[in-house]
Amino acid sequence: MAGPLSGVRIIELAGMGPGPFGCMILADHGAEVIRIDRPSAKFDDRDPMLRSRVNLALDLKKPDDVARLLDLVQTADALVEGYRPGTLERLGLAPDILLARNPRLVVARMTGWGQEGRQAQAAGHDINYIAVTGALHAIGGKDRPTPPLALVGDFGGGAMFLAFSILAGLTHARTTGVGQIIDCAMVDGVRLLMAPFVAFQNDGSWKDERQANIIDGGAHFYNTYGTADGKFVAVGAIEPQFYAQLLSGLGLSNDPDFADQMDKAKWPALSDRMAAKFREKTREAWCTIFDGTDACVAPVLSIEEAQTHPMAIERRSFIEVDGRIQPAPAPRYSATPLDLPTASRNIAGI
Q1: 97-145, pLDDT tens digit by residue?
Q2: How far is the C-alpha of 89 from the C-alpha of 153, rounded, in Å?
Q3: What is the pTM of this model?
Q4: Residues 6 or more apart from 325 whose CB is under 8 A from it?
Q5: Residue 318 exposure: Cα atoms within 13 Å on the Cβ side
Q6: Quick check: is 309 catalytic?
Q7: What does the pLDDT read at residue 328?
Q8: pLDDT for 180-210, tens place per residue?
Q9: Rg of the chain's alpha carbons, rounded to an integer?
């Protein structure tokens, strides 16, 4: 594979959620990712999160297969695992054993709660991890929090930090010749993602309630609105000059009620009025009105619609891999452009 990580070899011990997604990013960037899975595991070679990998079936409860994995470790730059804490040790693959085989190895351990602490051995999912960080509390309507897909915990606080931490570890190992162990926990990643909002809360500029702030649906100029055809548009006109263009497109420029944009006491009533205004036309009609302006109005597209949106086509944001539409690798590089992903494939040996 071409890309900035060409020449990097990563062993991925098969898991769920952030591990496969983080390794997909690394594989997209040119790393050779060898995924180790159980012989009995079901294998979908068209799963986007498993693309551009080779898959090797090993039973890590058998000494011969453990020995085979340790041989692979000697030629690897990093190993990724997402088991509950202690599982790797019980398999005879404790980090100190791995580092004894390869002192330059980066061992990245991906969990929800972290390698230690009162919750370390507890089960959990994205919704649980983001619940204890303050993130879930801040997302949703006034009546209750709403799970934001698995984007915040699994993929934002988990996979992205996993991929970043591996690159940081590899940089250190190449500079010093010394590998290390990474404790990558989703709760830690999400807490870090919340840094701006913690700061806003501490300086008094953020109200610790849902739909009470500028970017959580509290403001009439930063929200979603239904249209005449049952679809939605997204409005994000925060800056005064963008807000002015929003009001112009809506025919509200001369309405005195909308003059004081930042009067929070008026936000609920103005949101209701703006909602009524958007219901007067279809989503397409509003997009035509705001097209080419800085009003910060965009259509809320379905997952299917997003694949055929003109901007996605212009940017070649979706590709076909073995007959299945997938998001293209990102970001884009001038000196080390990325290859198109390939379907996963099983191998008998390396």
Answers
A1: 999 999 999 999 999 999 999 999 999 999 999 999 999 999 999 999 9
A2: 26
A3: 0.94
A4: 307, 318, 319
A5: 15
A6: no
A7: 97
A8: 999 999 999 999 999 999 999 999 999 999 9
A9: 24
Tokens (6 digits) for 255: 């309405």
Long-range contacts of 73-76 (CB under 8 A, 24+ apart): 73/11, 73/98, 73/101, 73/102, 73/105, 74/101, 74/102, 75/9, 75/102, 76/9, 76/10, 76/11, 76/34, 76/102, 76/105
Q: What's the Cα-to-Cα distance from 39 to each of 14, 19, 60, 303, rounded to whole Å?
A: 11, 19, 10, 34
Of 45, 65, 125, 309, the active-site residue reads 125
Rounded-to-integer distance, Cα 113 and Cα 245, Å: 45
At 257, is the pLDDT very low, low, confident or very high (cuts 50, 70, 90)? Answer: very high
Q: Which one of the listed residues 28, 37, 154, 188 is annotated catalytic?
A: 154
Active site residue 125: yes
Q: Return the structure tokens found at 98.
A: 């791995």
CA–centroid distance for 66 within its chain: 32
Q: Is 70 within 8 Å of 76 (Cβ atoms)?
A: no
Position 229, amino acid: D
